[in-house]
Each structure stands twice: as C-alpha cells, then as structure tokens.
Amino acid sequence: MPTKKSSKNSGPQGHPVSNRAAVTRGAEKHSPLTLASTLTPAQLKQKLHHLIESQGLFHRHQETTFSNRGTVFNWVFDTRALFMQQLAMDVITTLFWHHYRDKLPFQVGGMEVAAIPLVCAIQSKARELGIPLNAFLIRKERKTYSRMRAIEGEITNEPIVLVDDAINSGGSFEKCRVSINRDKPAGFTLAQVTHVFALISFESRRATQWLATHNIQLHRVFTLPDFNVTEASDSPPFTTRYSIAWRAMVKGGWPFHVVPKSAPVVVEDKVFMGTDSGSICAFNSTTGQPLWQHVITGAPERKGIWSTPAVHQGKVYIGGYNGVLYCLNAEDGKVLWQQAACEWIGSTPLIVPRHGMLYVGLEYARPRNPGSVAAFKLDTGERMWESWLRVIQHGSAAYYAGEDIVIFGTNEYTLSAYKPHNGQPVWQFSTRGAIKYAPAVDEIRGLVAAASFDGNIYLVNAKTGALVAEFQTGNQLYTTPLFHGDRLYCGSTDRKLYIINLTTLTVEKTIDCGARIFATPRFLAPNSILIGTAGGRMMEINATTLQTMGEVMVPDAITNAVASANNDQLIIIPTYLNELYAYHRQPLPTP
Fold this sequence. Notes:
- By secondary structure, the protein is mostly beta strands.
- It folds into three domains: 12-237, Rossmann fold; 240-260 and 479-591, Methylamine Dehydrogenase, Chain H (7 Propeller), CATH 2.130.10.10; 268-394, Lipocalin, CATH 2.40.128.
- The chain is 13% helix and 36% strand.
- It has a six-stranded mixed beta sheet, with helices on both faces. Strands 9-40-39-38 form a four-stranded antiparallel beta sheet, with no helix packed on it.
- The radius of gyration is 27 Å and the shape is elongated.
- The two termini are 24 Å apart.
C-alpha cells in the first residue's frame, strides 16, 4: 500500500539520499531564484513534475520504505526535503498564485508538518507580489503546555484555502476544517473552507465524497498517473453520514492531561458528565441545552472530576478529586448526600442494585496503604467495607453476576475479585503492570478482560481468576475492553484497535486508527462498534465485516467512550476538554 509520506534513510543501492538530491540540485544551480516568475503555468508544472519525480518519489528498487504496519511500499511520495529548497518553493508558490490570485480575498492555512513550509512560502510570495494575506497553522494535537493552542495564528472571517502536499482520504483536511471555528467568540461570522490546494491527489473515493459533502473545490497539480504509479487499493466511500445536532461546552477544560476523564452518560433524556473544573453537569440529550450544574469545592485546580457518573433510580453517583463521594438528584442536581471518603477519587462508582451498594477505588495522602477499594450504601453513603492496598487506586470495578463478585483492576499489578457484601477476597490474578481502568465481563463465557499498562490484554476466568489468554500490544493500555458477540475489542496507545476472536483466542485483526486510543469501544445498534482516538477521530466499524462505515472528526482528543441517545440515532462525542458534540446518523444508499 503506497502512501504520501514516509521516513527515508538511504537511496538507490544504499547511497545516501542527500547525495542524490545534491546531484539534482547541481543540475539546477545555474537557474536564478527568480526563474519561476518568467515561466508559464505549463512550464512551471513541467518543472515541478521533474522536481517531484527526481527528488520526492521513491520506488521500491531505489529505497526500502515501510508502512506503519511494517509492510514494504512499492513507492512513496516524500516531498518534505523538497520543501526545503528555494527553487521548488518558488515554483510551487508561483503556481499557487497563478490559480488563486483572482479568487481573493481569502486566507491560507494547513496542518503540520508538510503545510508549515507551504503556508509560510505562500505568504512570503504574497508579500513579494504585494498581496495582503492572513495565514495560520493547525496542530495535529493541541499543545499541552505554554499557551496550549491547537491553532497558531489568528483566523479571520475570510474564506479559507487549505493547503497540503497531497490529498488521499481527506482526513487531514477534515481535521483542519473542524478545528478552525472551535474557539471563535459568540457572534463571530464563521470562516468557511472553500478551497483545497494539493500538489498530488490520489483521487480516492473518500476524498471525492468529502469534497462533495462540504462543497469544497479541489485544485491539484498532479494525480498518480502523472507519475506512472497507481494506488494499490482505494477504500470504499463511507456508508454513514453524520450531521451536527448540537455542541455543549463547559469552560475550564485542561489540555495538559490527555487521558481518560469523566465520560458522558445518557439516561432517558439527559446527559450527565463531570468536568476538569469540578462541576457535575446535566444536558438535554436532544438539544444540548444545559439543565443544571453542581460545582464541588476543594478539588485540585484543573483536576476536579474525572470519575464518570453512575446513574440509578433518579440519582447520580460520582466521586471528586476533593475526596468526596456525591449522590445528587438527577432532575435538579441537588445534593442528597455526600461522603468525605478520602483525599482523592478518580475511580468511577460501580452500582450493584442487588446489594444496594456502590463500589469505588479511593486514594489517600498517607505513606502506608495509600489506596483502597470500598463499598458504600446507595441510600445513605455509609461506608460498609474497605480493603486496603499498598498504592493509590484509580481503577474502577466490574460486576460478574454469575459468581456475585466485584472485580477491580489495581495499581498493585493485580486483577482482584471481592464478595460484594463484605469485601472478602475471592481470587487475585497478577499482571506485569498497573490496570488503570475498569475490566470488562462476559457473563455468557464467564470471562474477564483487563487492559494493563504492561501492554497486555488479559483474559481471565471470572470464577477462578485463572489466565485464559493474553495478547501483547505495542504500548500501554489505559482503557476498558468491549465484549461483543464472538469478539473482544480493545484500543492501545500504539494507535491500533485490537479485535480478538473469542472462539480461536487469536487476534483476528488490528485497525490502525492513526492516533493513540484511550477511549473505551462501545456497541451501537444495530451492528456498529464506535471508537474514539486522541487525534479527535471517531470511527464507526461494522461489527460483522470489520470495515469502517464512517467517521467524524472533532477538534480535540477523544479519550472517553462515545455515548448515544434517541435509540442510537444520535451520537454524543466527548473531548478531553469537557466538550460534547452530538451528531445525527444517517445511513447512505449503497452505491
């Protein structure tokens, strides 16, 4: 499978690439830097074709290049070194202004990395031509320190031309489009992306679909046949369309911590969520209208509530980083009881109605036994039992009804089961790393799945705690797996979604999602798996074919599970900055 970018180490027969580039540049050294202004568009295009073919296109017989799955490419475009050459940028920018000068006024932007030299060169050429031009750059992920910006530069309300070296699926351009107006003040006229400029178009069906959906015009200089290469495969167009229904935002989101936080929970017509700023919020699930907000006190700044609400019989149960466990009325947010349980609570309460109790992990500021798992009465908040740990406890619990046990993953490198009524230990399974998030339970098979910081997905017998299987991923796991049908789904910070066949106990497939995965996968009726990534992408995957049916891009990282409302026809996507984006789902006719 070819791609537009790849790292490169050596050229043909092992000769350094820099030697190849130097030879080519030597042939052009007689050309003055003002050459581009003397050529016609056709001549400019011919010269650019030569530059890309000789210095930006690498075939397998010249240099071995790899995909992020470890497969070898037959060819690859890598224009980044070309963008460091004055002649090449003079030719590209002159071509750009030949095409776009009569479309002024507009502004230019693009996403790192390739767009950085392109945007800067286009703006510099505009100054040379006496053209006023605003420009900006978009980060793939928001900067988590200093000014913590996602966009460098200021965006005006003029139309926007986005630029990049190539357009394949259109995913990078879509991330730019959704990021552009996130922080605009109320009443500001939204800037619209009207044009896209790319040196090379793969002419993919998904890109064509994206351009038509958003009424964006593409100007590309070349297509793949211009270089006598063809795409090995073309992903089919998406079969599901999404349209924005509403957006809700609670101020005070903190970009530094790109980790799972408080996930949205939908019950009937309400969405409940905790925030970094220490508020417990309720929204109307159909309109996004705020219904109520309760602000806690005493929590650390910017780390107020990471616990996910647990809702039962009209009551909302949640923990705060002030160490207090809360029970609120779901209708109006009034506190029914609160229990000062410890110093910090990051764990999510697990409710077991059968016992009238909730179960949660606790963290203490003490040198010995700084953590515990504990049980509290649902109606009063009374502490019923507590089991001490040698480390703080951030993980949450799952319930296995088959044996009537609650199961916690812990920072002690264990998966531990307890009797719900008295906390008596039942079994313990040792891992090689911490388990930061709740395990998942398959009642039918009697299995527990846990994702560990050691990079392993563990499958354990829920009755005995004996290991059934383990699956190594490429990096830490900070999520809860999902059992659905005959498969287990689990994301990793190695950017892949692992799909495990529970019949054969093998990894059936991995899907590269393009960014780290913290969000828990979730099932969406009638037959979809939804997964969010730290790159701001939500993917909908067909649970039978495992093909991607559609995707949504939001401006910031998705680190928690997606929620749904209105009989799964409304998808509610959270970002780690305390935002909710609600989208209507609409199946498209099969082409």
